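Consider the following input, taken from an annotated entry for Histone H1 (Pedobacter cryoconitis).
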Amino acid sequence: MEKFSKLKELLTAAEVDAEKFYSAGNSAAGTRVRKAMQDLKGLAQDIRTEVTEKKNTAK
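Applying the prediction step yields:
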């Protein structure tokens, strides 16, 4: 559950930069959004792996 909380925090932080990029045209914010999305992707994969392991050991 700790990783899921971290995922939500990353998404919330990225939302601020996404607003700056799309509304104000701030390209540096766009770079931060891209980095955040890559971090989210990796964390989501870690969560998927963890869930699969837990599911398979419960059988």
